[in-house]
Amino acid sequence: MLKISGWSLIRLFTIMVYVFMFLPIVVVIILSFDTQQFASFPMQGFTLQWYYELAQNESIIRAFKSSIMLGALAALISTSIAIPAAMAFVRYSFRGKNSINTLLLAPIMVPEVVLGVALLLFMRWLQQPKSFAMLLLGHVMLTLPYVLLIVQARMVSINNVYEEAAKSLGANPLQTFKEVTLPLLLPAILAGMLFAFTISFDNITATLFWATAEHQTVPVRIFGMLRHSISPEINALGTVMIFFTIMTPLIAALSIRYFSRKSA
Amino acid sequence: MKKFNWQPWALLAPSVSAIFFLLVVPVLFVVVYSFWLRAPTGAVIPDFQFGNYARFFEDFFYPSILIRTIRVSLICVFLCLIFGYIPAYFFHRSKSRYRQAMILLIMLPFWISFIIRTMSWVNILGANGFVNHALMKIGLISEPLSLLYNEGAVLMGLIQFLLPFMILNIFVSLEGIDKNLLEAARSMGCNEWQAFKEVTLPLSLPGVSAGCLLVFVLTAGTYLPPMILGGAGNEMIANLIFNRVIGTLDWPFGSAISVILLILLGTIVWTYNRYLGINQLFNAFKGT
Asked: Which residue of A28, A104, B179, B268 lies most exposed, with the fewest beta carbons within 10 A?
């Protein structure tokens, strides 16, 4: 009897944790349809007005465009430099391997404010003004460790014999990589790029240091809007973001499944 | 003598140079700047001195923010541990066929925009927010409580942000436990609770400590929740750095505070690495 009640307490607690985790998300979605000027309970009515206004808001659409562009480029660059690094870690043994691995994962452990200050300071010393390129470089640094972890984990599970077989059949290293390693790695590459895109798309603290007036990302734009008060328009924007961030991994998961089935 | 193998280094060159020039060198610049001076005109004077550090510890204002940062981080670690261990254990032991879906669902907020999730606590805790509305509706209170702009609100935002990290770390280490050990404990007469206490709990500690370290480090560097949910008097050290660098453009002082934060976190990570090994920390990410 005691065992059953213990387990149901654990289950109840877990349900409460779900409620806690999802409450802010649900409330954003609900209030985005409210007719009031300022988001508050109780709701006064249902309207799509805020979504309409959002669609008319030039600066937000521009922010979406920069965010998507930034995220896609950061994902592309960090993945393409993470793949050879993961190969080095998994397929070779060399001195200082652990230290280098830790160094490459360092951006996870260094606080974002410090990353933000440091890159800005360095660029100023180089007399480089803030620019999209600098924002992109910063985001490559932020996303690289995550991509590396994902690609490396997959690389470990790919058996070396396939590569050895290709080499023994006369393929050179580049051919081996293109014909054998890369297809096997594809799911991890897609997952890594997706993760990188989401991290870049979502990043706020470091981006606040690097963003320029003309290259504001969506979170930076939201941060600016928050100075006034929480309007239903921000909640509507939040809802769009929520669906965007839920749909991206979903679509990606399906396409990864599709690709890995094809390569299997 | 073994020939030097240049191949791994060639493969590593792009990543290592990216991190070197975007992280290592810039952080070294922060260290150098922290010893320099800011002239009344706003210009930075390259002159080695400890003035910025002295200024930080001179009166109680700045150290009190450092102490608050440490205190909030510790409370956050403790709460995340409690709110994270139980669900992680639930997932670990659950035999439901929806187990995968449940785990995926609790990780879902992790994907959703941090600023949106933080901001939404205003919708919930504000004077006209969800909680006050619900409490007044059922007649428990007649006037809205002020739930926002205090440390509790900051902690809400922080926990909502950090809990997935903790759950994932603990879950991964629970799943790594050899099931035979639990069988053995049971066959020797342990009841459910004893088996948990003697076998599961000690063997999950690496995941617990990794989760705790991650939560501490991420909380100590946090900027957004204190900014949006904390209001005046609840700043943490990241807010201080941001205000000095972007607000008053006092780069040397902002750099000195950054170095103090780095030393605090560096000491903690170094200690952790010495006793547990840093690689443990990244295991959870590999599962995602």
From this structure: B179
